[in-house]
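Revision sheet: structure tokens.
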Amino acid sequence: MPPPDKFRIALLIIATLISPAILQAAEVAPPLLPIPDPAAITKAEKTIADIYKPYPPKKAAEQKDLAIKFLDQAKETTNDPAARYVLLRDAAKLSANNADLETALLAIDQTTKLYESDASALKRDALKRVVGEMVNPYSAQILLMPLLKLSDQALKDGNYDLAQESANAAEKACHTVKDLPMYSFVKEQVTETNEVQAFYQLSKSSLEKLATAPSDPEANLAAGKFLCFVRNQWHIGLPMLAKGSDGALKVFVNLDKSAAKDPAAQTKAADAWWDMAQSQTGINKRGILRRAAYWYSEALPTLTGLNRPLAQKRLDESTAGGRQGMARMVDLMPLIDLGSDAVDGKWERQKVGLTSDGARTARIET
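Predicted:
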């Protein structure tokens, strides 16, 4: 016997508000270790401090180097959960305290893969620390891209508070650096995180309402839009849109439902979503374009003539989701050749980026 509507909707609310990344990790990851008890942590801290005297080092460059050493040491320390935990914890703190957000996040990711820890709280702590170190254009420049990447990943993970905070920090960094070319990208990220947060709050109340009124048209519309346009969970959101109060949108839903295995219907659905997206803005447009991209990719192998290059062109544009910022950014790190691009200073390539000898004139041009 299928569960009653109220129970089914309640389960849906819980599943929807949990990040897909968390659900996926729960399916494949081994059991997490508990956080070591205080006595074990204190013992590990004393051992580590004795090995790495003076601890922590006074110079910022030495602290950043030590954080990377701690990450490597943590990989080898498999027989001492307390020491491993302290190594990862301190790697995150040392990195964040010296405006090295990428290394801090690597340490946090390792911590959350191994221990029963709050990833959101740890990342927000790291964010608070790096923002506190963003006191000059140099540190702000270093942090600008990692902050944007953190915000973008937080959006994908459904961590909208962190996404908003990271985007706001990136905007602060951009102002500090006075990087006008980057400002439009950063502003776009700030706008998107604000839109998604507002969308999320509206949908959360709608999902809660559906637990007691599963046929409510307005609640179905708001929840369905969030699930489809923001979370990209169309298999859950489409039935809600079908019960929603927007009659015009139901036409697109019906086209989508009929597109399962028919290439002609897939192209028709893709074209319909594409056309609809042209009259939308912001998060709605990006979400609708993602659906158009999905159906174009399904139909493409069977298309012929001009229909094929047209579908490919729209697929490429839809995949970018109408974004001008993060979708167009390219990681240039792999393109840097230290032999020819290092203008001044001694540079070394590390696992998480590049380090210099700290010379005031050290720079790279490529």
